[in-house]
Description:
- The strands form four sheets. Strands 3, 5, 6, 9, 10, 17 and 18 form a seven-stranded mixed beta sheet that branches. Strands 13-12-11-14-15-16 form a six-stranded parallel beta sheet, sandwiched between helices. Strands 2-1-4 form a three-stranded antiparallel beta sheet, with no helix packed on it.
- By secondary structure, the chain is of the alpha/beta class.
- Helix 12 (327-334) links the parallel strand 17 (320-323) and strand 18.
- Helix 5 crosses helix 6.
- Helix content is 29%, strand content 26%.
Amino acid sequence: MIEARSIFKEQAAPHSLGMRSRQLISVAESEVLIKIHSSSICGTDLHIYKWNEWASRSYRPPMPLGHEFGGTVIEAGSAVRTIRKGDIVTAETHLPCGHCRQCRLGRGHTCDNLKLFSRMGLGCFADYTVVPEAALRIVPADIPIEHATMMEPLGVSVRAVSEIPVDGKNVLVLGCGPIGLFAVAAARAYGAGRIMATDLSAYRLALAESLGADIVLDPSQQSIASAMPAILAEEKFDVVIETSGSERAFQEAIDETRKGGDIVFASLPDRPFSIDISRYLILKEIGLRGVYGRRLDETWLRVETLLRLQGPKLAQVMSHALPLADFETAFALASSGQAGKVVLHP
Ligand code: ZN
């Protein structure tokens, strides 16, 4: 029997986090017990922390938090075949059924019966967690365990800059939270031309520059159009990656997107955006596309390759690490804009 601490969202109200102590007895036959090495705070966790409209529609506290982690397998259930004790693992948070029409089309990430790891387990802001075998991914031996917690969110960014190839293209990244920062780094790694990144936080803009952005700007101080050097003002952006959830940022960006360019949404805006279809979709032939999580498992393989090539650079996004017991400070820091990704260590 193992005594494990776990961070909970306690009540349907802003903040309201607490630490609970629980006893883990044994794992079910298709489950795996994992000792957490590190876990990181995701944008979804922050929506739940702040208890915005989307979170209050989607969740029912009390519930454990966290789904990005790296850890070591302590025990595997009797029916587990692909994971062994001692393996270093992380989780794919989307569990497809494998049988529905979407799955058969090779679109398991939009499975009609999709289950979410973030709504079923012990969470991973914890000493230990229990995860179904199907949700686990083994972290290859040449990727350090410290980098494992980046794999799931990095996958969202890698997919966003892969859906529309960015090589040789001018790319605008709206928002420099962790997904935007990873998108800047991935776009640079995949051979983008000019990269501009926007955010309201000077701290995050500095990180974006060190990850490969050529031009950074705070849209509350300067318009995107006025920050464009002459050549870029003429060429405009081929690809816009939207991670901010801000309609204003989107409306500004669409005017700076070239005819025939593409806008990829990797954010979850809490309200619908409006768009002038005649002006942008028809007359300018701008493409709009959303990405929901990672392609299974193509994106994971791309993430592994990128981490092998650029792990230390990407790790700059993990700007702060705190002990698990300091979870209140960690969540406040992560929602302040004065951090990249905040990591918790049990
Ligand atoms: Zn399915």
